[in-house]
From TrEMBL, chain A:
Protein name: ABC transporter
Region spans: Disordered: 501-525
Ranges of residues in domain ABC transporter: 3-239, 255-498
Key words, A-Z: ATP-binding, Nucleotide-binding
Species assigned in the record: Luteimicrobium album
TrEMBL record, chain B:
Keyword tags: Cell membrane, Membrane, Transmembrane, Transmembrane helix
Lineage: Bacteria, Bacillati, Actinomycetota, Actinomycetes, Micrococcales
Membrane topology summary: Multi-pass membrane protein
Entry's localization field: Cell membrane
Matching CDD domains: TM_PBP1_transp_TpRbsC_like
InterPro entries (alphabetical): ABC_transp_permease
Official protein name in the record: ABC transporter permease
The species this protein was found in: Luteimicrobium album
Transmembrane portions of the chain: 41-59, 71-90, 96-118, 125-145, 151-174, 181-202, 239-256, 289-309, 321-344
A Pfam family matched in the record: BPD_transp_2
Length: 525, 398
């Protein structure tokens, strides 16, 4: 199916989110959309999917102009979409979410749940997603929710598939699987619009790249272009993709976790007797495949889930305190799912920037809020973190995904901290802003704050970590130095101990080198 | 739990001397059961001790960080009520059958109202206007049944009358995104004003033609109606009560087992998600508000053709709000709503029975009973309930 957007313009009040955008997606083509946070990529896709009404322009499907009154029409025309902000009903099961809108029935409108379960299992097996059809979505970690969202789109056999940052919370292995799926779909003639901030993925799968900046198309690029070139095109300036940081100067170990155990509702230990400590001026990265207890570990630190064992910060015990007390004790926390735990979407940017600070100086005067100070703080943070918003008074829910993430990180880093714990701190953030956030986190370290970063993104782990703790099935299988080869980390993430992994890695190293070599030459051809 | 424990002691201590008699059957029963007479003090003590045991078991579960099964709460409540009854009726006699049948009878408008409310709220529209729908339903049923002198046709007019209020609610909240609570309250006031005006200006003068409806006859169901205790309670009722059974069963299946129900719940939880899979959010909401208001309107028929016959001003007396409490207590599920409505109906009936018997409790306190039960039930028994996430939030598209 050939899809054409002609002169699409979408305004939100005074803001022009899409400014006369033209885009052609040929049948069987993977079309990558690149652009910084707030460039207007999601808005454009929502227009295409019928969620937003364009102010100007038209959508042409197979040379016929179409008018979508809503997503129902777009679905009927064979367009499917994976949404950046998951469109999953939290209290429904995976199977219920996947079947919603085209439910299998057994006559009389009675749902056929068994059929839905079977469909989920089939697709999930085919793509190696390992989904449980009866799991309730709100209990799942974001990475798993992302897989559900993908399955939900795939199950409809769309002829044009829009993927809006599907890989933001996937592990490298899952991303590879998704890329394989995309290739398979492409071979069957499905056109794909693919949005991501990870240039490696774009280079791996895209046929055409269109770059958008500030609502307008600034050009297209070939997937052969160097990553730095693509990054520069997106942001409009040169971006350094690595972080240059001085070696850590670890001080006193002020953050200690001992025998920490977290049990889920069924009494299974999802964090299983974990101990580690982090020194001032040091970054410990926690790596691992999603769902191995990292989420719960970070949540236990701030008291969001009940835990046993001990977490001490400068000698003070945190286990048993309320989240409020823990934050007051000087813990900065970036949760993995910003929309659930990190932000109040209906509050303004300014309010969200002082969510956990509103009751103290300089933002409070007695029982009243000092609105002037709050606004001033917002302006400074917006400037510092380059948050693209119409102003401090805009509702956070209306910011683009990456900009919402920046709000959370900006808030947490804007007060004096004794430890900084962040889950996927740069989820959905563009390359230019990742550069900035990474610098900012390293600066916090150099200030003498112990930092714990939970990330499934090995690039991020490599960029930030001074030491790496690898988690597998709730246990830390080893804590290794930052320069540990990826092959070793990969094996550890599959459960091997550090020593064992190193041995195995040396054995397979030669094969791997050979592999990589063929891969590279393959890419050059 | 501990608070309730103290209440058990209250039930236990001042149990007065003699004996309590429970009538178990009515005179017309096929199988006749003799009344049961029990020594009131002893049985009150025994029942209280059993209730205490249930409470202790629950406490033990909590201390072991285990979940307390709902059945424990229910067993506790039943035992406690029985103990209380034995104590209160000590030295006199009461008919258990008429107590239970009366409870069901009084629960009818509450159950219909709660069901109507939850049909709307499951789709994300708060329906505070249940009170108004009950009232217009009562009015419509009375007038129409009088005109055609047929009580059954009153049951047809009631939902239509409720529908009028529902349509206004949907128009303002779904179409124009006005705050749902405000519209609901305004509509209640409107319903009171409209029916009172029509009552005093039209019905009063023409009471014989417009406001003297026939009442729904009791329709005993053969065989089922002859089962001891249960039969007379459940199966010697009017058509309206049988319609309630049907509505609850159909409602429960429709909401949780059908395509329609899944879509409705998706709209109430996360309308944007429903929209992205091609479900028309606002059309679903329209449909549900209208359906819910018809169900509530039908419940309104209870007040006139279902019980006393003629319509009188503001005769629903806040039952619509108690129905909303029943909806919440029943966790937005039809069976839960029925259970909660029965609880409120029971406390209401108990108040009447004990008032007639003239027990030691002051009359004013007895009149408060249904409302006290409502407050305790909503605050205590429910705990943390979670309604539909998008309840009350209009869906606006960019
Ligand atoms: N519903 C809305 N109301 C007002 N402004 C909006 C709304 N949705 C998006 N915007 C604004 O439109 C601009 C483009 O947002 P969009 O979500 O399309 O960005 P994006 O390119 O997808 O960014 P990201 O990479 O961070 O996801 C942003 O400045 C955003 O604040
Ligand atoms: Mg986006």
């Amino acid at each position: 199916m050939k899809l054409e957007l002609r002169g699409i313009t979408k305004r939100f009040g005074p803001l022009v989110a899409n400014d006369h955008i033209d885009l052609v997606v040929e049948p069987g083509e993977v079309h990558a959309l690149l652009g910084e946070n707030g460039a207007g990529k999601s808005t454009l896709m929502n227009v295409l999917f019928g969620l937003y009404k364009a102010d100007e322009g038209e959508i042409v499907v197979d040379d016929e102009p179409v008018a979508f009154k809503g997503p129902g029409d777009a679905l009927a025309a064979g367009i499917g979409m994976v949404h950046q902000h998951f469109m999953l009903v939290p209290v429904f099961t995976v199977a219920e979410n996947v079947m919603l809108g085209h439910e299998p029935t057994r006559g009389g409108g009675l749902l056929d749940l068994d059929a839905a379960r079977r469909t989920v299992r089939e697709l999930s097996d085919r793509f190696g997603f390992g989904l449980d059809p009866d799991a309730v979505v709100e209990d799942l970690p974001v990475g798993v929710q992302q897989r559900v969202e993908i399955v939900k789109a795939l199950v409809r056999d769309a002829r044009v598939l829009i993927l809006d940052e599907p890989t933001a919370v996937l592990t490298p292995q899952e991303t590879d699987e998704l890329i394989a799926i995309m290739r398979e779909l492409k071979a069957q003639g499905t056109s794909i619009v693919f949005i991501t901030h990870k240039l490696r993925e774009v280079k791996a799968v895209a046929d055409v790249i269109t770059v958008i900046r500030r609502g307008a198309v600034v050009g297209s690029a070939s997937p052969d272009a160097a990553e730095t070139e693509l990054a520069a095109m997106m942001v409009g300036r040169a971006v350094s993709l690595g972080v240059d940081k001085a070696p850590a100067e670890p001080g006193e170990e002020t953050f200690q976790v001992e025998h920490l155990t977290v049990r889920d509702a069924n009494g299974i230990a999802v964090v299983d007797d974990v101990s580690f400590s982090v020194a001032r001026g040091e970054i410990l990265a926690v790596a691992g495949v999603q769902g191995n207890g990292q989420t719960e570990l970070s949540e236990a630190v701030v008291g969001l889930v009940p835990a046993t064992g001990s977490i001490r910060l400068e000698g003070r015990e945190l286990v048993g305190l309320s989240p409020h007390e823990i934050l007051d004790a000087g813990v900065g926390f970036v949760p993995e799912d910003r929309t659930v735990d990190g932000l109040v979407l209906d509050f303004t940017v300014a309010e969200n920037l002082v969510l956990d600070l509103h009751d103290r100086k300089p933002f409070a005067r007695g029982v009243a809020l000092d609105l002037g100070a709050i606004r001033k703080n917002a302006r400074e943070r917006i400037e510092e973190y380059d948050i693209r918003t119409q102003g401090p008074a805009q509702e956070v829910g209306r910011l683009s995904g990456g900009n919402q993430q920046k709000v959370v990180v900006a808030r947490e880093l804007s007060r004096p901290l004794k430890v900084f714990v962040a889950s996927q701190p740069t989820r959905g953030v563009d390359v230019g802003s990742i550069e900035f956030l990474h610098k900012r986190i390293v600066a916090e370290r150099d200030n003498g704050t112990p930092v714990v970063i939970v990330s499934t993104e090995l690039d991020e782990v490599a960029a930030l970590a001074d030491r790496i703790a690898v988690m597998y099935r709730g246990k830390i299988v080893g804590i290794v130095p930052a320069d540990t080869p990826r092959a070793v980390l990969g094996l550890m993430m599959a459960g091997a101990g550090a020593e064992e992994a190193r041995e195995q890695a040396t054995e397979t190293e030669l094969d791997q080198l050979a592999d990589e070599h063929t891969h590279e030459t393959g890419a050059q051809q | 739990m501990l608070g309730l424990l103290a209440l058990v002691l209250f039930g236990l201590l001042p149990a007065g001397g003699r004996e309590t008699t429970f009538g178990l059957s009515t005179s017309s029963d096929f199988v006749h059961l003799g009344p049961v007479t029990v020594p009131s003090k002893a049985s009150a003590v025994v029942l209280s001790v059993l209730a205490l045991l249930a409470a202790a078991y629950a406490g033990w579960c909590v201390s072991r960080a285990r979940r307390v099964g709902r059945w424990v709460t229910i067993v506790f409540a039943v035992l406690w009520v029985l103990a209380f009854l034995t104590w209160a009726v000590a030295g006199k006699s009461t008919s258990l059958v008429s107590l239970l049948a009366g409870s069901l009878f009084l629960a009818v408008p509450l159950a219909f109202g709660a069901l109507g409310g939850l049909i709307g709220e499951r789709a994300g529209v708060v329906n505070i206007a249940i009170e108004g729908q009950l009232l217009t339903g009562a009015f419509g049923a009375a007038v129409f049944a009088s005109i055609v002198s047929n009580a059954y046709l009153g049951l047809v007019a009631a939902p239509v009358a409720g529908l009028v209020i529902g349509a206004l609610l949907a128009l303002f909240t779904v179409k124009y995104h006005v705050n749902q609570i405000i519209v609901g309250v305004v509509l209640n006031v409107f319903a009171v004003g409209l029916t009172s005006f029509l009552y005093s200006s039209v019905l009063k003068e023409n009471a014989a033609t417009l406001n003297s409806p026939p009442r729904l006859p009791t329709l005993p169901i053969p065989v089922l109606g002859d089962i001891p205790v249960i039969g007379p309670v459940l199966f010697r009722q009017t058509l309206l009560v049988y319609l309630l059974y049907v509505a609850i069963v159909v409602g429960a299946i429709a909401l949780f087992r059908t395509r329609w129900g899944l879509r409705v719940r998706a709209v109430g939880e996360y309308p944007a998600a429903a929209d992205t899979v091609g479900i028309d959010v606002n059309r679903t909401r329209w449909g549900n508000v209208l359906l819910g208001s018809m169900v509530a309107g039908l419940g309104g028929a209870f007040f006139t053709v279902g019980s006393v016959g003629a319509f009188s001003q503001e005769m629903t007396a806040g039952k619509g709000y108690i129905a909303l409490a029943a909806m919440i207590l029943g966790r937005w599920s039809p069976w839960g709503a029925l259970g909660a409505a029965l609880l409120f109906g029971f406390s209401d009936k108990l108040q009447q029975v004990l008032g007639v018997l003239g027990t030691a409790i002051p009359n004013q306190f007895m009149l408060m009973l249904p409302y006290v039960v409502t407050i305790f039930a909503v605050a205590g028994l429910v705990g943390r309930v979670r309604g539909p996430a998008a309840d009350g939030v209009p869906y606006v598209k960019e």
